[in-house]
Amino acid sequence: MAMSDARPTAHAGAHREGNPHDPSIASGPPMPAGQQPNRYAQSLSTPGSFSVTWELVPGRGAREPAQEQALSNALEAARGGRIHALTITDNPSGRPALSPTMLGIEIRALGIEPLVHLTCKDKNRAQLESELYALARAGVRNILALSGDYPVEGHQGRPRPVFDLDSVHLLQLIGSLNNGLPVEGPKGVAPLQPTQFFAGAAVSPFKREEAEVLTQYYKLKKKIEAGARFVVTQVGYDARKFHELLLLVREQGWNVPLIGNVYVLTYPAARLMNANEVPGCVVPDSLLRQVAAERQAPDKGREARLLRAAKMVAILKGMGYDGVHIGGHGLKYNDVEFILAKGEELAANWEALLPEFDHPQPGGFYLYQRDPETGLNLPQRAPLGRPQRAPGSYRVLRFLHRWFFTPKRGFFGVMQATARAVDGSRLEGTFDFLEHLTKSVTNDCQHCGDCALFDVAYLCPMSQCAKSQRNGPCGGSHEGWCEVYPGKRKCVYVRAYERLKAYGEQETLAAYTVPPPDWSLYHTSSWLNYFLGRDHTARRLGIRPPAQPPAPSGEGVRHGVAEPQAGRPQAQS
Ligand code: SF4
Prior knowledge:
Blueprint: H1 23-26, H2 39-45, E1 51-56, H3 65-80, E2 85-88, H4 100-109, E3 114-119, H5 125-137, E4 142-146, H6 167-178, E5 182-185, E6 188-191, E7 198-203, H7 210-225, E8 231-233, H8 239-252, E9 258-263, H9 267-274, H10 285-294, H11 302-319, E10 323-327, H12 333-346, H13 350-353, E11 368-370, E12 377-381, H14 392-405, H15 412-422, H16 428-443, H17 461-464, H18 492-501, H19 526-531, H20 536-541
Parallel strand pairs: 1-2, 1-10, 2-3, 3-4, 4-7, 7-8, 8-9, 9-10
Antiparallel strand pairs: 5-6, 11-12
The chain binds iron/sulfur cluster.
């Protein structure tokens, strides 16, 4: 369904009567005999239950105070019984830390569910799969699938970012493992034993620009289609934005539990987030001023920040969220218990607390019209900004695409016949060189051979997105700028949205999932791969190579199927 098609079915701010989700969807795959039920999955599918996770940060090192503290917090949480899962970050802020897989295994042994963050920044698809096998073998089932922060620090300098997959691909991989991955063996293809992962995704409603907000939601749609079973928000303090996400999920009929992020805000953290030093976390000036004033108190603002967290719990519960994800530096289990108990106490009057969480970003975009009574949202969509005129380069590329690359139009047949003639001939190297030269000038082409220009409004996600995101923005953009180049480069999805919006086509960014690049096509001609049915776009559009003229000997030709050639990657159907 197009994201603008449906209208909300639930009114803003209504209390939720029990859990509205289909238990069979939220609770994950059936458990094999002998395996303990997944308490976290159950907390999201049991009517009336309000799920609670607490974030632990493993820290750098193996046996440093940070790891010992994390384990001692885990032990207290296991004894306390209020927490449904402990979430463990994966190299947060792009810095190395103890593997969350290792800590997850240790935590599970303490008798509490771990929820392991798995990110794509430091591992390619093979290593992610391998990590998932390790987790499955150890009985760790809850995963938060993320693209991850850009790596910034490591041994002898900045690490090389990987981003072979994005979070949508990672969810697809997990889904394949849950379904029993078919693997080629000596006796043919056979499925592996299905895993029981319960995987979720993250989203940030707290973006300022219309393009950032909409593209976050387009990507969320793909994550849900890829099998996300729960959705956790990024860190933010604007109640109207939390409510916007809730309305959108209801409007779209997405059957997925929502978890609100409740970060206990110290002054140093608030200052860093306000300065955009923590990717994706939003603290506007109005809130920073509040936190600065609170720290003048004799307890340095401790009580005020715990109370703020409790009020957020109350609001999220009252609004209809399915749970909270509590985080914050230096938190103890007692603090978490206080936040939950106080939140429970305040939940009955949650609407009275809303004015304390009215922290809009200046000029910030909201998807729905404001409800003047509550300060939240009405179910009606807000108008979008006026489209800008698309840049000339984009208009030229659209024209060329229409006449040369659109099946059954213009010169497509000629191009395909040319591709057939050039492919494997002595001219192929020159053809490839000229294509690469042209696309290097227009798009800083990385010569990946599995071109995604068609998918991102003729902007290359391999060269112009620092994280090679092919399905939508990461969570780190800030006021329209790229997480990695703030103030210097606009996020590639902000640019793509604006280009497409000029033609009313922005929702095409949500229309289908772009697969990860097929590296067997690396440094080959993407035009040949397209016209001859070898790349992902050709597969999506059903492009098949043209039939070859009959060979004189009558051998070596199969009608409509690319002929195998030595050293040449073949189409994957
Ligand atoms: S271009 Fe956008 S999606 Fe890519 S790294 Fe920058 S902010 Fe993230």
